[in-house]
Design a protein that fits this description.
The protein is an alpha+beta fold. The chain has one domain. Helices cover about 25% and strands about 20% of the residues. The chain has one helix and two strands, in the order E-E-H. It is elongated, with a radius of gyration of 14 Å. About 0% of the residues are buried.
Length: about 55
């Protein structure tokens, strides 16, 4: 499956995301698999950027 992953840990913003090919998750007996249609990243990117800025 195609998935966006955070691959560049020192980047700030959308350049930290990369489209990758990943295996389809297989839940264990005590787990569930949730299909996600869409997500929002703005708050995540703002929090990540402010955390990186405080460290440098």
């Amino acid at each position: 499956m195609k998935a966006y992953a955070l691959t560049k840990k020192d980047s700030r913003g959308l350049e930290a995301l990369e489209l990758i090919e990943a295996p389809v998750p297989r839940p264990q007996a005590d787990e569930v698999l949730v299909k996600v249609e869409s997500i929002g990243l703005k708050l995540f990117i703002q929090l990540r950027s402010s955390t990186i800025s405080k460290k440098t």
